[in-house]
Specification:
heterodimer; A: two-stranded antiparallel sheet; 75% helix; flat; B: 449 residues; alpha/beta; five-stranded mixed beta sheet; four-stranded mixed beta sheet; 18 helices; 15 strands
Chain lengths: 315, 449
């Protein structure tokens, strides 16, 4: 209290000249503030109604044992305790992290290599053709892609036909029904979907790197790998950051591909939190528990993605 | 400096969200979710009337899209008898209907007739009409006891006894399809009459390089085999008690472990196709029709496809039981129709339910490929067809009162446990004892909620 008074007292002399002037400026600032708020109001209202409210309701539900219809009962943090101790739910979170290798790792590294090669080779038409081909999976909904891959992975599907054709008949199997391979098989669908997205983004990024830099590197006798290491990758820092962020979220929050291809099976081999949330909430009517898992998943995604954002932003 | 500022603002925002999150439940503590739906169903009493009169009545019906054909046919036949009644049907995809039904029947303007799968929950929440008065008026207590049990729920949410809340449009019936050519090839001169004969035939098939028992276990079809053995070894009442949630009912018993162990043995002996966990039910039916396997454990819903593809080469039997036992098989309601508590045309809706067990209603259901509700004289099917064979099997089953509900329907979450567990069983990733323990623990968890 004393400090505050003395501070404001000390400020007065060096402050703006008159009290009149002071309030006029404050009023102007206030008016500008109100106008600003009015401008963002429509968007802010929509955001509050369709993003914040559901988010907060989910958090609220997560403290209840609720079947979605009858009156819920308060259970405190019991749902969270269950999520964090149930081996099956924990293993589903583990599977989501494993999928990062395929949903994020393969597309980002693959995309970098393809983009760098296209920059290096520069044959007319090749770039457009590659872009179109790689981007094609992006315009197919994940659910539809999963159905197509289910056929390819079937006992007599394309994958096994190819393997038999090259003499690898002994390794053929029903890939999505195999306890050891199902999760990898699901991951490959994710790689196939994500590769195009990353490649397009990275090709666009390479376009922004000054051609002079590449020219200078070539004049200095830099090899493809040196150019890649010292020109392309550093120049694409921001784009790589976006790719990594988006694909990691896709891996951790995966639902459509897994739901349409395996529903989490065989056994519990490919369960992921997204599918568990759906099953708990809608099939088993355990809305509280589903909400708690959703909150934990959101927190996990933030915990993984926020440091990555920082890593790629700092120069 | 700038970065520090932004990050502190961001941090402040984050803290705000977190604290809002922390405060939210406290604020809401006085009004738990669902309170707004909690009108403890002061159902307006209705005077029971079995005469529909001549005044126009408009009913609404809600069901899964897979049953549209048979429902539309039932509605057409019913409204022909009662021209003053119109029934508007609304369909959602089957799995969507199962998920949405509790919310639809709880709404302020519910349908007058709706398929209800999660029966105890709907009764507990007082969303359904107690059909007792209509049962008295129409004489529904004459229905076969095995069917009536599927319609009843008592005050504690235990099924099988108590008041009647539903009536089935018809029934599914499960058993074993067999390929007649392959049967002759392996020396099976007649369909197996006992479990022992079934195992002999399967062993003979295996020796000749034929898959003994087709199953699409990506869709959990090995559960049919598991329940077939549970039915045979534990008996109808023990299995139904478990499905109906009778207090103390358990499958974590030596008998149940023995039953599951038989199926685990079949898997170990290679009786199921090698890729069963990667094969869905549609593909399995197709592969059986193509002549890959001797038997296929499934239900009447596959009959039309199999008959079309296999002609006279396919037969159907009820699941074999131990010597001297009465037949018992899974046979669920096609649509277990209830009248939501909020319906204001209960007399007309009840008349539709009664129509389901009438001669005309039964014929419509049989023509639609299902087994009919109630009991009565043999219905008309072309003789010497697969469908006739299935109808005969169903009549035998009803006469022996051997209808048992699917174990997956014991609780809302049960199919989510059986599916992964049977997949692990055939892959040798779990044992019979671990499976029954896991299933029972998940069952008790569901019931404790």
């Amino acid at each position: 209290m004393t400090t505050a008074t003395s501070l404001s007292g000390a400020e007065l002399p060096s402050g703006p000249p008159g009290p009149n002037h002071h309030s006029a400026r404050r009023r102007a600032r206030f008016r500008r503030g109100v106008t600003g708020w009015l401008f963002i109001a429509p968007a802010a209202l929509m955001y509050a109604a369709f993003v914040l409210r559901p988010l907060l309701t989910t958090i609220w539900y997560s403290f209840y044992n609720w079947d979605g219809i009858s009156v819920g009962t308060w259970v405190g943090v019991d749902n969270y305790r269950f999520v964090l101790t149930d081996p099956q739910l924990l293993s589903s979170i583990g599977h989501a992290f494993f999928l990062i290798i395929f949903f994020a790792g393969v597309p980002v590294i693959g995309g970098l290599i393809v983009a760098a090669l296209l920059q290096e080779i520069k044959i007319r038409g090749l770039g457009t053709a590659t872009r179109t081909l790689l981007f094609l999976p992006q315009i197919i909904p994940g659910a539809a892609a999963a159905v197509a891959w289910v056929w390819m992975y079937a006992t007599n599907g394309t994958v096994n036909q190819l393997l038999s054709a090259v003499g690898l008949e002994s390794v053929t199997r029903a890939w999505l029904g195999d306890f050891d391979w199902a999760l990898v098989a699901v991951g490959i669908i994710g790689s196939w979907l994500g590769l195009g997205f990353c490649t397009i983004l990275l090709i666009a990024g390479i376009g922004k790197i000054a051609p002079e830099v590449y020219e200078a590197a070539r004049l200095d006798g830099a090899t493809f790998f040196t150019t890649f290491r010292y020109v392309t990758v550093p120049g694409l820092r921001a784009e790589i950051g976006v790719c990594v962020t988006v694909t990691i979220i896709a891996a951790l929050a995966s639902f459509d591909i897994v739901f349409m291809s395996t529903q989490g099976g065989p056994g519990y081999a490919t369960t992921v939190p997204g599918v568990q949330i759906y099953q708990l909430g809608f099939t088993e009517s355990r809305v509280g528990l589903a909400s708690a898992l959703a909150v934990v998943l959101t927190a996990l995604i933030l915990a993984v993605v926020l440091p990555i954002q920082r890593l790629f932003r700092e120069t | 400096m700038g970065t520090g500022h932004t990050s502190s603002v961001r941090r402040a925002g984050f803290v705000a969200v977190l604290s809002a999150a922390a405060v939210m439940p406290l604020v809401a503590g006085c009004a738990p979710p669902g309170s707004e739906n909690a009108n403890p169903g002061a159902q307006t009493p209705v005077r029971v009337n079995t005469d529909l009169g001549t005044e126009p009545v408009e009913l609404t019906l809600y069901d899964g899209a897979g049953l549209k054909k048979v429902d539309d046919a039932l509605i057409a036949a019913f409204t022909e008898l009662h021209p003053n009644v119109t029934i508007t049907a609304r369909y959602d995809p089957d799995d969507v209907q199962a998920v949405n039904a509790p919310r639809v029947i709880a709404s302020s303007d519910p349908p007058d007739i709706a398929r209800v799968i999660a029966l105890p929950g709907a009764v507990k929440n007082r969303q359904l009409t107690d059909l007792g008065p209509w049962a008295d008026a129409y004489g529904w207590e004459q229905l076969p006891p095995g069917q009536l049990a599927m319609y009843r729920v008592d005050k504690n949410g235990v099924r099988g006894t108590g008041s009647q809340y539903t009536m089935a449009s018809g029934f599914t019936v499960t058993g074993l399809y067999y390929n007649k050519d392959l049967a002759a090839h392996v020396g099976m001169t007649r369909p197996p009459a006992s479990l022992h004969e079934l195992e002999q035939s399967m062993s003979a098939a295996k020796q000749r390089g034929i898959v003994p028992l087709m199953a699409g276990n990506k869709s959990g079809q090995v559960t049919f085999s598991v329940q077939m053995m549970l039915n045979a070894i534990l008996g109808r009442d023990a299995v139904n008690d478990w499905v109906f949630n009778v207090p103390g009912a358990t499958v974590d018993t030596p008998g149940a472990v023995d039953a599951v162990r038989v199926v685990a043995g079949w898997a170990a002996d290679g009786y199921f196709p090698k890729d069963t966990n990667g094969t869905d039910s549609t593909t399995a039916a197709g592969r059986f029709a193509a002549g890959e396997a001797l038997f296929y454990a499934s239900g009447n819903w596959d009959a039309a496809t199999l008959q079309a593809k296999m002609g006279d080469n396919v037969g159907f039997i009820l699941p074999p039981v131990r010597d001297g036992d009465r037949p018992v098989a899974m046979s669920d309601p096609v649509s277990n129709f209830a009248i939501p508590a909020g319906s204001d045309k209960k007399n007309a809706a009840a008349a539709f339910l009664d129509f389901l067990r009438s001669e005309q209603g039964r014929q419509v259901v049989v023509d639609g490929g299902f087994a009919p509700s109630g009991s009565g004289p043999a219905t008309l099917v072309e003789p010497d067809t697969l469908r006739a064979e299935i109808q005969r099997a169903f009549a035998t089953l009803v006469a022996a009162d051997g209808q048992v509900q699917f174990v997956q329907n014991a609780t809302n979450g049960m199919s989510g446990t059986w599916l992964p567990q049977v997949q692990m069983l055939v892959a040798g990733k779990t044992t019979a004892a671990d499976l029954t323990a896991a299933v029972q623990s998940s069952y008790e968890q569901d019931l404790a909620r």
